[in-house]
Design brief:
Blueprint (H helix, E strand, L loop, with lengths): L2 E7 L2 E11 L7 E5 L12 H9 L2 E5 L20 H16 L6 E6 L1 H12 L4 E7 L7 H16 L3 H5 L5 H12 L20 E6 L8 H9 L4 E5 L6 H4 L1 H12 L10
Parallel strand pairs: 3-4, 3-5, 5-6, 6-7, 7-8
Antiparallel strand pairs: 1-2, 2-4
Helix pairs in contact: 1-9, 2-3
GO molecular function: hydrolase activity
Protein name: Alpha/beta hydrolase
Keywords: Hydrolase
Length: about 270
């Protein structure tokens, strides 16, 4: 059962849909879970709960503004190049404050959520004690833009709209918020490689070798900027490792988080 919390953001009140998953103990280590560019709480299905229980943590899973059952984008709202920075530096801190989260926590982000996790870890290094990213973006590749253009065709002419509508109250808000900015003429200049140096938490980066939205340049670039990064490259895996190879992802996360769990990660 999802819950809602309200706070002010971008000049108006927003309601954020969220759930707690995993270990049912507010004193347990906390893992904050950030969804992909078309994701939501419900699109994760049971993966956050399975992962959190396997790792012995409590997970906070939420839908960003514009997604799921959270407040949709305003009719005239268009995201800018800084949309992921705003999620990392404004929305996530406001959510944690509204929920009374104190102390340190780990992050798990997928795709755009992985980029937001990296940006948040760079913005609040004193709060983040571990960062796991799956298929993150640190720069824009034409390889990935081709797939994003194809997604627009599938949404407008194919069968993508119907399944997405099951997970979003305003499916156009979710789709076009993501797709419009990624296909904006100036978006190819977007990158966050210069900000990686501010991350002090250990990082685990996971990517499928058959990911249509990004090459290994994404996670290899993280390792170049943060030499201690642990990389997991999964053969026969696409853009969603937690759906394509959930057991491999859970094992990798367990091994990564085990020595880091009890470093003041609690809500």
């Amino acid at each position: 059962m999802t819950q809602r919390v309200r706070f002010d953001w971008a000049g108006r009140p927003v309601d954020i849909e969220y759930i707690w998953a995993g270990v049912d103990d507010p004193a347990a280590p906390l893992l904050v879970v950030l969804h992909e560019g078309l994701g939501s709480v419900s699109m994760w299905r049971d993966f956050p709960d399975r992962l959190a229980r396997a790792c012995g943590v409590r997970a906070l899973v939420y839908s960003r503004p514009g997604y799921g059952r959270s407040t949709p984008r305003a009719a005239d709202e268009r995201w800018g190049l800084d949309f992921m920075h705003r999620q990392a530096q404004q929305v996530l801190p406001a959510l944690l404050q509204a929920l009374g989260v104190r102390g340190r926590y780990a992050l798990l982000g997928h795709s755009d959520g992985g980029s937001i996790a990296l940006l948040h870890a760079a913005h609040a290094p004193q709060r983040v004690n571990a960062c796991i990213v799956m298929a993150p973006h640190i720069l824009v590749e034409e390889f990935g833009l081709k797939s994003i253009r194809e997604a627009r065709v599938q949404y407008e002419q194919g069968g993508l709209r119907a399944p997405l509508s099951r997970h979003h109250d305003d499916v156009d808000s979710a789709f076009y918020g993501w797709n419009d900015i990624w296909l904006a003429p100036d978006f190819p200049q977007w990158q966050i490689t210069s900000e990686l140096k501010n991350i002090t938490a250990p990082v685990l980066a996971i990517q499928g070798e058959d990911d249509p939205y990004g090459t290994m340049a994404q996670i290899d670039g993280i390792a170049n900027g943060l030499p201690g990064t642990q990389l997991v490259k999964l053969p026969g895996c696409g853009h969603s490792p937690h759906r394509d190879q959930p057991e491999s992802v859970i094992r990798a996360c367990q091994a990564f988080l085990a020595p880091l769990l009890h470093q003041e990660t609690h809500a």
